[in-house]
Design a protein that fits this description.
Serine Threonine Protein Phosphatase 5, Tetratricopeptide repeat, 0% strand, mainly alpha, 2 domains, 189 residues
């Protein structure tokens, strides 16, 4: 089976993003969107690249476009992260809640909520959210690290150290430190 032009641009864009060549990836994803403005995965691909380039306003813009076409937990979770980094904590929390509603078994949805709660000073809720992410994916070092950070902030240092040690153990056992892929494959519209 020969891929059509849309698929060719899309998959090359994913490869370019994986190589951290975000400008070229954005250009390829934009070609996909020119051909099919409702291609959610390409819109999210553009948003992910802008997020990685630290242009959070552009990231929010493209996650919002993707959500307008097809509400999906991934776009809500990562738009939540962008909002939190922009210090718009209430929108970040709202998007994280929506991501959890759409995909309760998606660990990044819970982690996004954990980040929002942590930023808002709700340490206990943040710990619960990071704990849920850990329950779903127990070999993800970054969730332990984030929960450990929250424990440190509330002076529960033994628990913090335990989580940080677990994160180091996971990083040593898996050089990538993670079993998740970025960005994950999305359904193509």
């Amino acid at each position: 089976m020969v891929p059509d032009k849309t698929e060719a641009y899309y998959y090359r864009g994913r490869s370019l993003a994986a190589k951290l060549d975000f400008d070229k990836a954005i250009a390829d994803f934009a070609e996909v969107v020119k051909i099919n403005p409702r291609h959610v995965a390409a819109l999210v691909g553009i948003a992910d690249c802008w997020f990685q380039k630290h242009d959070l306003n552009q990231a929010i813009h493209f996650y919002t476009q993707a959500i307008a076409v097809e509400p999906n937990a991934y776009a809500f979770a990562w738009r939540s992260a962008a909002y939190v980094q922009c210090q718009d904590f209430q929108r970040g929390l709202s998007d994280a809640d929506e991501a959890i509603r759409l995909a309760p078994h998606m660990p990044d949805a819970h982690a996004s909520r954990g980040h929002a709660c942590m930023a808002m000073g709700n340490a206990r809720e943040a710990i619960e959210d990071f704990s849920e992410a850990i329950r779903i994916v127990p070999r993800e070092a970054r969730y332990y690290s984030m929960r450990g950070l929250v424990y440190s902030q509330i002076a529960e240092h033994d628990r913090a150290m335990s989580d940080h040690e677990k994160a180091f153990h996971l990083l040593e056992s898996c050089p990538c430190g993670s079993n998740s892929s970025f960005p994950p494959e999305l359904s193509e519209s």
